[in-house]
Amino acid sequence: MHDLFPSDKTTIRDKIKLIDPSLDFLLTGMNDHKEKMLDTGLFDNRIRRTLKDITQSNNTTEEKLSKVINDVYPYLQVRPLVESQVKTDPDFIVSPCVHLSSNIKFREQVAKAREMLLNTRILLETSSLKRYLETKDLMNIVAISKSVIQDRNFHALFDLLLCNKPDHVGIKIIGVRESDTVTQNKVFEFLRQFSEYAKHITNNRPPPLHLVNVDELGYASYCSGVCNIVSPIATSPSFAFPSKKHKTTINEEQDTSPTYYHPINMDHPKLNSLTMLPCACVECRKYVTASNIPHKAKPVFRRVHWLNTKNEEIREFRETPVQLNLALRDKFARSMRTQLVAYLPENPVFAL
Length: 352
Ligand SMILES: [Zn+2]
Description:
It contains twelve helices and five strands. The chain is of the alpha/beta class.
């Protein structure tokens, strides 16, 4: 980070370093993601073999999931995943945790997730890793598929998220799209109810709630008890993996040319579709037009511009004299993302 972003340029407050073990990538991700994770050497070798068998089989999704639960779960250990984090001196230790993706196997998935979250706490309190508890916060990041966010599961999810008394709770929602208003509203309702529940359970000292892997949609969550959002830099959050199957013809290539976060429209037009850069940040002022940016500099340019823009947007919301939800309503209404207004609740819940 230091080389890319000179210290006087970009500060979204203090930087926090955390490494999310993201077991959802291992258990249901694309093959190359799985391979990369297995190549870290942090997993039992038997897992590689089983996952390969599962990929090559013609089993149904449910059968595959059963095999993961029966044959992979027993070999998932939290210790190597925690040890690999502390070696890099992070600010938070993220508890490894399986993701929750199935209503049919919900109980089994929650049981394993709970076991891993509790084991991390026990490990940090009783082993040689104990010394890290004094300087590092414990964070849960639980990945949850949209299909599982249902009223009947709310309580089990709330209990799970708090089961090991974490210092921070992170929620990563898998598979939900901004345009899916019904599901998205359910997610925000879930966040608000969790926030109230956590207050109640912790005597009004709830752990800060982070929403992981969202873009501007995350701004709306500031009104649903979320105090921090985690976004990928200058790419769309991986709500769903793009599949080659989804290409309509064999010859159709995906347009992978760089995008540009438009600070007024709040959308991501292609950088090469712009002539003048519509932003007053240091980077944009330096180049003035998109064609002035050397090809090699584009990846860094768009990331620094993105950070500058986000820094300014978040500062605007935080420092506005009007209530946050009204400031957001105004910002969304002026953008091409007016649909986000629908996600601002009538009775906002603010975490701070
Ligand atoms: Zn800019």
